[in-house]
Amino acid sequence: MQPPYATAGLEIARGVLSQRLVDDALRLLHLDTLEYGHSAQTLSEWLWAMHWFPHLNQRDEILALARALPAPWRSGTLCDPQILLQFPHIGPEPEIVSSISTKSRRGPMAGATRGSSASR
Fold first, then answer.
1. Are 61 and 28 in contact (CB under 8 A)?
2. Which domain holds residue 52?
3. Strand-pair partners of 83
4. Does some domain include residue 50?
5. 105 found inside a domain
6. Residue 4 lies in a domain
7. Structural domain contains residue 6
8. pLDDT tens string 77-90
């Protein structure tokens, strides 16, 4: 019988990594941001690529996270580390609704194009 994380598709496991390793990785990200002051264009590129701080992938602080995972999670071929980040949401939590399964909510700007009366 395979472990649950291999057969269920997804398992959330909290506390697997030591807080020291997590703090070391977060410190690296914070220092990099302070040192380089990443531009809005860079942040946008990272956001759309869903891959933040690609230049830090091979740093010890990041690789230490992978080395600390339980052995069964480290089997197979190690992929390049992928650092993901999402800035905190401000205000009420928005409802997440699939745009495929619901009718589009059309507002006053729906269908407006540059130069049309709706966009003025």
1. yes
2. 37-89
3. 52
4. yes
5. no
6. no
7. no
8. 877 777 766 666 67
Tokens 């052995």 belong to: 71
Number of folded domains that form the chain: 1
Which tens digit of pLDDT belongs to each residue from 32-88? 999 999 999 998 888 888 778 889 988 999 999 989 999 988 888 877 777 766 666
Query: Do residues 109 and 119 touch, judged by C-beta distance below 8 A?
Result: yes
Q: What is the pTM of this model?
A: 0.59
CA dihedral 88, 91, 93, 96 (to 10 degrees): -80
- CA–CA separation, 6 vs 1, rounded Å? 10
Are 4 and 11 in contact by the 8 Å Cβ rule? The answer is yes
Find the helix or strand (DSSP H, E) in which 104 lies: none
Spatial distance between the Cα atoms of 11 and 117, rounded to a whole number of angstroms: 51
